[in-house]
Amino acid sequence: MIDLLSRDEFAALGIEAMLEIEKIPFRRISNLDETSGAPIIAAASDLTADESDFLLARRSLVLNGGAVFAQRCFDSASPGMHVGSCNIPVTAPVWPARVVARAGDLGINSLRLPKTTICSPSGDIEGEVVLPFLESSGDRRRSGAALVRRGDCVWSLVNLGTAFSALMTDAYLPLREGPPRRRLGPHAAANLLFEAYYRLPQALRSFVQRRTYAKLDRRLKEYGDIASSYPVDGTGWLLVELTKAIIRAISGEDTVGLAKWPAPYDSAAVLTHDIEPTDYAYGEGLSRLLRRISDADTKSTLGLVEAPAVAGLDRSTTAEIKRHGVILHGVTHRGDAVVASPERLAGYLSRARERLELKLGRRIRGFRSPRLDRSADLASALDAAGFAFDSSWPDVDRENAKHFGGGVRVNVPFRRPIVDESGKVRVSRCLELPMTAPDCIQSLFGGGSRDALRSDVERKADFIRSIGGLYVALVHGGVFDDDDAAVRESLLEDVLEIIKKQGVWRASLEEVAAWWTSREAVTLETEHGAVSATNNGNRPVEGLSLIIENASGVETRPLPRLEPGEKASIALTGAAKPAA
Prior knowledge:
It contains 17 helices and 24 strands. It is α/β, with parallel strands linked by helices and 580 residues long. The chain folds into two domains: 2-169 and 230-247, Rossmann fold (3-Layer(aba) Sandwich); 268-514, Glycoside hydrolase/deacetylase (TIM Barrel, Alpha-Beta Barrel). Strands 2-1-3-4-9-8-7-5-6 form a nine-stranded mixed sheet, with helices on both faces. Strands 11, 12, 13, 18 and 19 form a five-stranded parallel sheet that branches. A four-stranded mixed sheet has the order 14-15-17-16, with helices on both faces. Strand 11, helix 9 (281-294) and strand 12 (300-304) form a beta-alpha-beta unit. Helix 2 crosses helix 3. The radius of gyration is 24 Å and the shape is globular. Residues 576-580 have low confidence and may be disordered.
């Protein structure tokens, strides 16, 4: 059990998200009088002298802490505070050997944090430097201490909680949001632009595509170290692994959590197919795609644009679609708004969902934004509109012009921080299932080769399989003509071959969201040399496994089927017992 003290909600939500991803048991506390003797993680910038002394004498991880804490506990005078990016080497003893080895196999030698808060002490720090860092934010080029330990207390000068929240919000690029839109429908200019693009001859369209991607690639150099790495970016995975390692270091015990996927699977994959707003896409292109995925022995999820779907789908196609998962993929796909008041956006999306549900005769619970356009307003709107899950935030973005070089760098489901109606920060009720790069055949538009694309898919699938993540593949149905459809179908065959060979759990987006939500409802408690799991949800959960982890390795133990309200206990005989 971890006691999480929160007086910096953005940082605390980042830590909470990492603990929830792993299902490491924790509880929120509002002051240190509520501690239970468990290890403490304190996210605060205003710790008092008494609180600082208390934490120094306990097993604790302190994020920031503030000037009083820095001076009393680490003899650091008046540390400054700023927001920046930094690199933390994946070589120090705190990293588990298996993580260092896997990162090395991937060519990753540092944890690159694109945005977080960083303490800058003026002078020496009393204590052992656990991890150094190299900062490269703007004009800043300096090395320093990321983590310092004194006794059982670890000071996180590079705020790991804020770093993870920054990833989840995908807000680290220097974006300039425009003013909220006065109307939610697409502008006439946007309609004309997209209509012209879809009607261009192939040769001219390829010219436009290559010019556009060349310009976007040049922008990556301007972003420098904050840009995501394509196609594999291990930032989210490494940040979680580092946090778990620190928890084990301060507690002296193994971490206990839940396996991410139903037994016997240790990774998952989803095939999604967005249908673009062209006559071909909702005619022959969709028919070809449905024939392919019906023969593929793998569940698929279709992203349908409301306006063309409602207007263009015939009865037989609608019946065939019922065999697959469906999400709303925008209203027109041509200039759909994502910057407006969350209330207006929620109403706009809700009405589109209702029209598509009426057309298909089924409930729709998920969303993906056209062209992966996204914003904080959209995230709040999805929560307000009651969408159960979303897949608009990619792990690595190499499609969206505005967010090119960004991405959440996380390859498991998570709940994004949002600002609610009262102005408070909380986690969204809409589960995010990050879309996985490569994004369909986008790299071919920029001049890449088919062989390179397949290699990127294989490399990415291998990475996600090795970290126990979720691969959300996107392969569009044919957009322009039969030639375009054939290229995309070739990629679909490659993706299917790769994920089938891996033996991962192949499911729809809705099935993944349902599993993860049920898993979230299970809580763990450690007591008297045993771990108990309680199902606090309203559905039975089957296929859960307990994960007991230390620096040497990972042990997995199956849990029985849990009915709603049911509790099961497993003795930790043979394993190091976790802190109570």
